[in-house]
Design a protein that fits this description.
- The model has no long low-confidence stretch (mean pLDDT 87).
- A 6-stranded mixed beta sheet has the order 5-6-7-3-8-9, sandwiched between helices. Strands 11-12-10-13 form a 4-stranded antiparallel beta sheet, sandwiched between helices. A 3-stranded antiparallel beta sheet has the order 2-1-4, with helices on one face.
- It contains 8 helices and 13 strands.
- By secondary structure, it is an alpha/beta fold.
- The chain is 30% helix and 32% strand.
- A hairpin with a 2-residue loop joins β11 and β12.
- α3 crosses α4.
Amino acid sequence: MIRLLGVGKRYGDAPVLTGVDLEVRPGSVVGVVGTNGSGKSTLLRILAGLSRPSSGTVTGRPRVGYVPDRFPASTRMSAVAYLRHLGRISGASEVDPRALLDRLALAGGPNTPLRHLSKGNAQKVGLAQALLTEPDLLVLDEPWSGLDPDAHEVLGEIIAETSARGASVVFTEHRDERAHAHATEVFRLTGGVLRVVDRAARVVLRGSGAADLPGVLATRRDGDHVELTVAAENTDELLLNALSGGWSVVRVDTPAVRR
């Protein structure tokens, strides 16, 4: 899909990224965790082809859908008119943008002028434009920022669907638990240096009651099924605790299986 090898980025004398190695495989979902100023947005701009590295190499030219951390929404055009215009430019005029906006529940509806949208609703339009061409690589900068709770769930579904069709997703996030809940691989960017975080496993249990088990990074419930995200090295301990607590194990999805 796309690979970064020894990538660095400097603005003047200030290094922003240093020696970044990252391979994004087809179907993978990569979460990059870091604080403001750690270089996350710069890394995503390089992945999206919007910025060139000062050093190192980038190989692979996937079709990219990109959503910046703040989607520009100052135009008088309505959301649907804007997306139709972009669709014509990108050769995706057959895609119905209203369906995307309806799924994301855009406040005010698809005819709302972009400049009247809140940050969260502008992000919804940004996400819709990134999906118009069914990209091979979806690049999302702080995508949950400003979104309402219902849109959080829809975004998670879109990320999973993108991965399921063989495309890849790279997103940035402040919160470790959210990154682990949605990513197959999680990295931490600190001072421009990218390091892998202990990889997580996903365990699906069936039963009732509170899934109050040690080592859980994130929890998602669907009826009598509970999906738990846990650090890979804690998986065996969690399974023993779950079985002793009366839970049935439906599936264990390890990092090795997801690769």
